[in-house]
Amino acid sequence: MNLPCVAPAGGGYVVGVAGCLAATWLLPRAGIVIGIPLAYAAAYTAGLIAAAVLRRRLDRIDGHRLLTDRYRGAFARSMAPVHG
């Protein structure tokens, strides 16, 4: 069975992928319908916890600076295929 499993952004990649793989391997076909959304919920929860911990540790970095760095990274990734 080939099911697409995409983990959410924000630090929950390992939890999301592991949960999706566990759901597809361990659950019966009818249970996968419940298992994958539970894996997504666990991944988003892990992302929220990671964000809360990082927010406490990086209290001097404001939202504008974080978004600017995020946009710069996205632009650099989009230009990588163009330039080789």
Based on the model shown, name its key terms.
single chain; 84 residues; mainly alpha; flat
Task: Report a brief summary of the structure.
With about 80 residues, this protein is an all-alpha fold. It is built from three helices and no strands.
Description:
The protein is mainly alpha-helical and 84 residues long. It has one domain (13-79). The chain has helices at residues 13-26, 29-57, 63-79. Helix 1 (13-26) runs antiparallel to helix 2.
Residue ranges: pLDDT <50 for 5 or more in a row? 1-8
What integer value in Å does the Rg equal?
Answer: 17 Å
Number of helices: 3
How far do the termini sit from each other? 35 Å
Q: How many extended strands?
A: 0
Mean pLDDT over the residues: 79
Structural class assignment? mainly alpha
Shape: flat
- DSSP strand (E) fraction? under 5%
State the oligomer: single chain
Largest sheet: none
- What percentage of residues falls in helices of 4 or more residues? over 70%
Which helices and strands, and how do they pair?
Elements: H1 13-26, H2 29-57, H3 63-79
Helix pairs in contact: 1-2
